[in-house]
Write a structure and sequence with these properties.
The structure holds two protein chains of two kinds. Chain A is built from eight helices and no strands. The termini of chain A are far apart. Helix content of chain A is about 80%, strand content about 0%. Chain B is an alpha/beta fold. Chain B has a single domain, classed as P-loop containing nucleotide triphosphate hydrolases (Rossmann fold). Chain B has a six-stranded mixed β-sheet with strand order 7-8-9-3-10-11, sandwiched between helices. The longest helix of chain B has 16 residues. Chain B starts with a strand and ends with a helix. The mean pLDDT of chain B is about 95. The chains are: A mainly alpha, B alpha/beta.
């Protein structure tokens, strides 16, 4: 097994990994705010909003992500009348699926974070004259994010690995190139290389979140 | 002049009446201690004053404005304006754990009142010195003892220049050896003629610092008087027996 060979198969895999990273970044950046919005809806006094948020979380967590991806990529275009307008680029469709799915998990994580905040915090803020919005923004959110951080880190690492589901909707990414090389060259090496690339990505994430946790230790 | 005047305050949680017809007033520069057995409605009464509890009947007047009149509350803006004249110190401090001591003091004047940064900083430095915690300005609450936390909480309330400061059992969550430092700060405020209302179980403190002691029992205002009157010459049997037990 030559170094040249390893380099020659690693190169397309790294290119595929760009897709993985791109999807990861889009999914994280959009699903966290969307998740928080759903948390707020779930806690809202408006019955319809709250019902919608709970149902949303139930459906998104209660069905496989793979099913949701297939549904969006291949199912929606089959709908009568509107279907033809719902044909999306595979990668875009996958992004939509990931964002919608992960938002549900983040919503639950943030809800847990909110539950952990003592009601004395709201009372102190009220007595000091904070409005509802100021209380949420300045007092509750920073504490909620701190509490939620370890769970968010965990979910992010899961997301890195879930990007491999792109394979199922035929968007060429890291795993796709590994599998191609394995089939072509009859060797297990590409799988090892893929594993190492995933490990490197999760290592980076782990270090980043460790740093965040330390930075926001409040001690 | 009365800072607070309360008349016929009523409040129930479900079937349970926690305040029955409570009436009293607090004059400017006065220190009122509220004593009574657990569950007598002291804390609920105090919390009603700053709208943390809503009453079912009666009136609360702060200076010339009614927070609630005969059971009808003022509008939201008015409620905010009226309660902003009162500061509150809680049993469990309720400091903001994600902010340093200094930030805990400065956040409300900055966010709520939009005061100038230089004024805020000067004032927070002054108040931290007053409560003896200048060296803790950049510490997070997690690193403070209970007594230190409560002194920060007092300074935080004072940042908003309240007309009256309310204390809800300020030393009940503290280890006995830490109550002294908090009571000392309250005593000092009393000497500076800060108007205060203190719900407390510290009889010695009440006797020493208060101008007026209010005894509550079972949601009722039983009697009030100077410490001298109450401790040596209470009118009602239940006041006497409570004091007898409390002082033992």
């Amino acid at each position: 097994m030559s170094v040249d060979y390893i380099l020659s198969i690693t190169k397309p895999m790294l290119e595929g990994a760009q897709m993985t990273v791109l999807l990861f970044i889009i999914a994280i950046l959009l699903s966290i705010p969307l998740g928080f919005l759903i948390t707020l809806m779930a806690k809202s006094n408006n019955k319809a909003l709250s019902w919608f948020a709970h149902t949303y979380v139930y459906v998104m967590r209660g069905t496989p992500l793979l099913l949701q991806l297939l549904f969006i990529c291949f199912g929606l275009p089959l709908l009568p009348v509107v279907g033809e307008y719902l044909v999306m680029d595979r990668f875009v469709a996958a992004c939509v699926g990931f964002v919608l799915n992960y938002a549900a998990y983040f919503a639950e994580i943030f809800r847990g974070g909110l539950l952990s905040i003592d009601k004395g915090q709201y009372e102190a803020a009220q007595v000091l004259g904070f409005s509802k919005w100021q209380t949420t923004n300045k007092i509750i959110l920073p504490q909620m994010f701190r509490v939620a951080l370890p769970a968010v880190a965990n979910e992010s690492i899961t997301l890195v690995k879930d990007t491999a589901l792109l394979y199922a909707v035929a968007v060429p990414e890291l795993l796709h190139f590994a599998q191609t090389a394995v089939n072509r060259d009859f060797t297990i090496v590409p799988f090892f290389i893929a594993g190492i690339i995933y490990l490197l990505m999760t290592l980076l994430l782990t270090l980043f979140f460790k740093w965040l946790e330390k930075r926001f230790k409040f001690e | 002049m009365d800072i607070i005047q309360v008349s016929n305050l009523k409040k129930s949680f479900g079937n349970q009446e926690v305040l029955r017809d409570v009436s009293f007033s607090v004059k400017k520069n006065e220190v009122v201690a509220v004593i009574g057995p657990s569950g007598s409605g002291k804390s609920t009464m105090l919390r009603s004053l700053v709208n943390l509890e809503q009453v079912n009947g009666g009136s609360i007047r702060v200076q010339d404005d009614y927070l609630v009149k005969d059971g009808v509350y003022a509008g939201n803006q008015e409620i905010k304006q009226i309660t902003s004249r009162m500061g509150m110190v809680f049993q469990h401090f309720n400091l903001f754990p994600h902010l340093t001591v200094k930030e805990n003091l400065e956040i409300a004047p900055r966010v709520v009142k939009g005061e100038a940064s230089s004024d805020i900083q000067r004032k927070s430095a002054e108040l931290l010195e007053k409560v003896g915690l200048s060296d803790k300005a950049d510490a997070y609450p997690a690193k403070l003892s209970g007594g230190q936390k409560q002194r920060v909480a007092i300074a935080r309330a004072l940042m908003m220049n309240p007309q009256i400061l309310l204390f809800d059992e300020p030393t009940s969550a503290l280890d006995p050896e830490l109550t002294g430092e908090v009571l000392q700060v309250i005593k000092q405020l009393a000497q500076e003629h800060m108007t205060m209302m203190v719900v407390t179980h510290e009889m010695g403190f009440a006797r020493e610092v208060a101008n007026q002691i209010m005894f509550m029992d079972k949601g009722e205002f039983v009697e009030s008087g100077t410490p001298e009157q109450l401790f040596t010459n209470a009118k009602f049997e239940r006041t006497k027996s409570f004091l007898h037990r409390a002082l033992k």
